[in-house]
């Protein structure tokens, strides 16, 4: 069973998400059947070695400075050309901003199916098909999806759904550099479906520190308080569904079952009750600090440090505590 994965790069380095996809591939098939595909404006040779040493059987690279904008149509043509040659049975990508843009387009070009935002993957023993599991209907049910008739079986996988692949030692896996045809950049090239600057919205998923706000923040203007604290401690700002549904922050800030899963070193929850659907996205944080007026709020069950108090009194004191003068 041949499995390939789209390894995203940022600033010449492979992302942690790429190593997670490699880890998923390793659960599905033998290392020699796994191919990493990189489409990138630049990537360092040691990064390619890193993929090879972490269990990828082959690394295929399309590297060209003209790929500096994440142009969906252009990237999708390269994914298609890779699949026509290599014929992978399974093709995985990250359920990142770019992965979620690129994969539907590539699936459409190859006339195959795609399951978005999977949280679990396995091979069905009797059929050898990929079982693609994802939450559906707002997280109320878990759907298991198969792609029996078309190839490749494509899926995007939710970040942090598996630990990153660890090095297995030098394997001598081939690194193949393929030319990006000039014709892709000329006037006759396919029309761009969307061209996004490589992800800024992803910063929440990889953030080491997160300040998250819940409905206790009361109104949109008050988000500034959390943003000030976040900027003092170098944190990203996240939110509950209550907050994004009210339009106080964009949906990309939502953490939880139907939002992002995060694994920061520290997670500061302000005015968040701690509903199971929210905990599903953040309880893997290394340290959780919660501020809530209700001593019975479930968030305190998950917190390492709980502050029973009004966030409008506590947060200004935290901001003062972290001000450059008092540090
Ligand atoms: C299928 C499904 C999927 C869902 N997916 C998600 C998801 O991905 N992410 C998510 O977050 N939710 C999700 N939800 C919603 C979830 O069930 C909760 O409704 C939501 O997490 C609650 O958000 P909250 O904590 O901001 O609000 P609330 O539950 O209303 O809590 C607000 C808290 O603020 C406290 N508070 C009020 N004033 C102050 C103050 N001045 N200072 C300090 N504390 C104060 C209150 O005591 C309370 O505990 C989902 C629900 C369903 C059914």
- Binned, the helix content reads 25-40%
CATH class value of the largest domain? Alpha Beta
Order of helices and strands: EEEHEHEEHEHEEEEEEEHEHEHEHEHEH
User: What small molecules are bound in this structure?
Assistant: flavin-adenine dinucleotide
Give me the CATH fold name of the largest domain. Answer: Rossmann fold
Describe this entry's structure for a reader.
- The chain is an alpha/beta fold and 327 residues long.
- Helices cover 28% and strands 25% of the residues.
- The chain has a 7-stranded parallel β-sheet, sandwiched between helices. A 5-stranded parallel β-sheet has the order 16-15-17-18-19. A 3-stranded antiparallel β-sheet has the order 9-10-11.
- The radius of gyration is 21 Å and the shape is elongated.
- Flavin-adenine dinucleotide (FAD) is lined by residues 138-140, 214-216, 240-243, 254-259, 271-273, 275, 277-278, 281, 291-294, 297, 310-312.
Map the helices and strands.
Layout lengths: L2 E4 L2 E2 L2 E2 L1 H13 L5 E7 L4 H9 L4 E6 L6 E2 H15 L3 E5 L2 H14 L3 E5 L1 E4 L6 E7 L4 E5 L7 E5 L17 E3 L17 E2 L6 H4 L2 E5 L9 H11 L2 E4 L1 H5 L20 E5 L5 H7 L4 E6 L6 H4 L2 E4 L2 H11 L6
Helix pairs in contact: 3-4, 6-10
Please sum up the structure shown.
The chain has two domains: 194 residues, HUPs (Rossmann fold, 3-Layer(aba) Sandwich), CATH 3.40.50; 119 residues, TPP-binding domain (Rossmann fold), CATH 3.40.50.1220. Helices cover 28% and strands 25% of the residues. The protein has ten helices and 19 strands.
